Each structure stands twice: as structure tokens, then as C-alpha cells.
Amino acid sequence: MEPITTYTGIMAPMMDDNIDTDVIMPKQFLKGIDREGLDKGVFFDLRFLKNGEYNPEFILNKYLYHEASILIVGDNFGCGSSREHAVWGLKQLGYRVLIGTSFAGIFNDNCSRNGILTITVDSEKIKFLASQAIVGSTITIDLPAQTIHVNDEIITFEIDEIKKHMIINGLDAIDFTLQYVDEINEFEREYYSERGWLHI
Which are the contacts of 151, defined by CB distance < 8 A and separation ≥ 6? Predict the structure, then answer.
């Protein structure tokens, strides 16, 4: 995965609460046997009109946000079913960072495992970021320092150390586990040496 250490991008606000994975990636885009074309499915029923044209009223279709790669989101973003397609689609569409007050657990884990950084901050900080996102502000996230820089303001955030390590180093769950391959092999040798009857 592409690592994130210091990341700069344009913010876009999508502040409705409880946006679920069916809104993020509708069910008709789950039929494929690969991940191709999932960027089109992201927020499909909001982004497009019934005739297939872009919905000019949908906020992410506004000109200000055409190059946005950071979403400022409402509470409980990514709730609903555990479809990983929602995360794959967001990444294909160019989003690398999501900032909100809370994320659904499985969705949050899927983001970490696919190289999308999720940051949680309190509601007052989200209101401030959303106010800056309305004008298409660019912000910088310093993940090692756990800070968000927007205009002259600095916002700090907390993050799980394992998640932070994985994203800084571009590790998925398999890569992270393979860091401990020597310890795993040693455990396996000891385990089987004490339980020889397990060998076939």
C-alpha cells in the first residue's frame, strides 16, 4: 500500500450522520469478481441523476471539490453492512483521508487495511474543519506528529499505535503479520516439538 506520513489535500464536507455502506457503495456494484470500476459506484445514487448525468446539487460534484482527497464526515460514517467495496471505491475515487467524530468499527478497520487514514476528533473540531471545507481549503496532516494544519490552526488527534505504524509504513494486515515471521516460525517449531502427534 502507498504509505501516508505527511499528507496535503483539499477538504470536502459530507456532514450527514449515519451514512452507511449502502449509500457509499450501492449493492449493484458488488457483482464484479474484481475491484475494477468501483470509483463510479461511490455515492452513486447521490452523485448521478436517473438519466446518468452528474447531479449538480450533490456537494461532492461542486467544482471546488473536484480535486478533493480528504472527506470531513458526520457521526458514525460507514455504518451498516461490512462491504469492503465501499472502501475500495473511496480509494479509487481518490480519497485518502476521512476525518469525523466516529466511524463504524468494521468500516474503520477496512480503511486501515486498505490505506485510507481515518482520524477522529471531537465535534467542535469537526465543525471548524467543516467550516473551512466549505471554501475548499487545503490542509496538511502530519501523521507522525498526530497534527492537522489548516490555515493558522493546529489540531491534534489520537490514533491507535498499530494503525499509525501500518499506515506510515504502508502495511496491510498480512505485511504487518510477516514482520513477526521469525517469531511465528519459532512458535511453530516449539509447538510441534511438544506435540509430535500432530504431524501427519
Answer: 132, 137
Q: Helices 105-113 and 161-168: crossing angle, nearest 10°?
A: 30
pLDDT digits (tens, 9 = 90+) for 92-149: 999 999 999 999 999 999 999 999 999 999 999 999 999 999 988 999 999 999 999 9
Is 69 in contact with 94 (CB distance < 8 Å)? Answer: yes
String of b and e for 168-180 (b: at least 16 CB within 10 Å)?
A: eeebeeeebeeee
How far is residue 115's CA from residue 69's CA, in Å, rounded to a whole number?
Answer: 13
Q: Which of 91, 93, 100, 46 is nearest to 72 (CA)?
A: 100
Question: pTM of this prediction?
Answer: 0.89
CA distance 188 to 28: 44
Amino acid identity of 38?
L
Three-state secondary-structure class, residue 10: strand
